Amino acid sequence: MHDHVTLRPERAEDQKTLxxxxxxxxxxxxxxxxxxxxxxxxxxxxxxxxxSLIATIEAxxxxxxxxxxxxxxxxxxxxxxxxxxxxxxxxxxxxxxxKLSLAGLDWxxxxxxxxxxLIGNPHVYGPMGFASNASLTHGDLPHAFVQxxxxxxxxxxxxxxxxxxxx
Length: 167
Hints:
Elements: E1 5-9, H1 15-26, H2 36-46, E2 51-57, E3 60-72, E4 79-87, H3 96-110, E5 115-119, H4 122-125, E6 136-137, E7 146-150, E8 158-162
Parallel strand pairs: 4-5, 6-8
Antiparallel strand pairs: 1-2, 2-3, 3-4, 3-8, 5-7
Helix pairs in contact: 1-2
């Protein structure tokens, strides 16, 4: 892990760089539909970008994570979704995504959120505290990929509904 990674909120002048970063990071992924970079732009445009954090090394953007409002049909409180998250290829698997994600989760928790949901690999997100259960669903996705972290101890049950830009 790079000790000299700095986290900061997104700035207006970062938008083109972030679009390119996300498009490049998702391009080789077999699960990508190619819309992830546009989704960030739509979240921003729709007013659904709750938090947009950037990781930099020597002022160069190397990673990004977005958080947006989400609904869990059977859960109370304010829930958020993590994603998209993207790290520049040479910097992947070095803990930068984890650092971004945990900082974002801390930010949400400090603002009274009930928890956070995501669609992702349980081997990647499990070590960050995310879990799945048979009662949390998103369409016909396998339960293992529909994950949550609860800040209140509530175990969410029901269908996860993401902001329109992520649907």
